[in-house]
Amino acid sequence: MRVSAIGCTAMTATLLVALAACGGREGNEAGSTAAASGACQGQQTTGITDKSIKLGGIYPLSGPASAYGAIPKGIKAYFDFVNAEQNGIGGRKVEFVVRDDGYQPPKAVEEARRLVEQEQVFALFQTLGTPSTTATWDYTNQRKVPQVFVATGASKWGTDTNHPWTIGWQPNYVSEARVYAQYLKKERPDAKVAVLYQNDDFGKDLFGGFKRAIDGSGIKVVAEQSYEVSDPSVEPQMRNLAGSKADVLLNVTTPKFGSQALAADAKNASWNPLHIINNVSASITVIKPVGFKNVQGIVSATYYKDPIDPTWKSDTEMMRYYATMKKYAPDADPAIPYHAFGWAVATAFHKAMDAAKCPTREGLRDAMRSLNSVPVEMLLPGVTMTTGPDDGFPIESMQLMRFKGERWELFGDVIDTRKEFGPLTG
């Protein structure tokens, strides 16, 4: 699928001066006339010109994680909006080329090569999923192509020092696990926990982080079951976990299996654990098919605004989001959080690109690793983007939420996991 889009914001005078200093030169076949002199001379300009910028995204538009296919719709709506109404990112119109990997790592590698070598993209803006991103990041780093704000919370995107061209965006899974552990220590200090997790780097990262976070406390993991993304159902695993009689269930799944686990939990009248579901499966699209009456009281954590939460009804950014989705993506339901996620991460890319001292691949790489409390209006109040030479995690704050009625309700304060638990290291 290919979508053409445009993105921008007004640039500061300082940035305009910095970009002007980069001058112009001929790049390679998809190159740019920009960045010819000064500090920018000799840097990569594939996929970017003075008037355009070409990005590539890889998502599971099909397969077991196809619910995430809503994300690029939110991204496209954002880019279309700034294209039509704000004259592009630094005057450059964005073409966003989206490929489907079906949540299959070998396919992700194939699509990454196609985007880089055939489409000649400036950067990969989002590859979704820990397995797919793991399969592609050696290639993108060898080719020195920015792999920006990947749609996975694996902790290695921030702790690994051998892949400077790849960076995550959302809170990492270890930090998310710490938030749940902290909650249980306060509310259920003697909890007996059963864990369902996806048997790959994603599931193991969050589950491993949780086990380390509860170490030394009265909380115990009394049962664990894994599943493969090729499995048709997790009902057998859920039956085994129910036999443990644990009073807490930690559900570490992607959307299809998250919904199955919620449904299996609801059907088992003899087991009624506190159900904690990880953020990536906390969307209303996962929960609604199970029946709202069957998911009351489940807990998760988030970092961006829920488009159906009345708290944000008069919020300036949320109103702009709804109006833009209606205008530029009329067939996409703005109430679906994955669309809001796409909008938020597109805004983040826009701000990182604005901050680049050179309109080059190197300029973007450096900008995404030197963010200083950068606000993104679709994030929760108090949540900003910060990175540094030793901090590859843009967002490290989350807030707990509980499902009540027909929506999530936030509770407690925003938790800055950097301050609460210290930085993660490799």
From TrEMBL:
Keyword Cell inner membrane: no
Signal peptide range: 1-20
Keyword annotations from UniProtKB, A to Z: Signal
Domain Leucine-binding protein stretches: 52-404
Signal listed as a keyword: yes
Any one Pfam family match given in the protein's UniProt record, by short name: Peripla_BP_6
Family according to the record: Belongs to the leucine-binding protein family.
Protein name per its UniProtKB record: ABC transporter substrate-binding protein
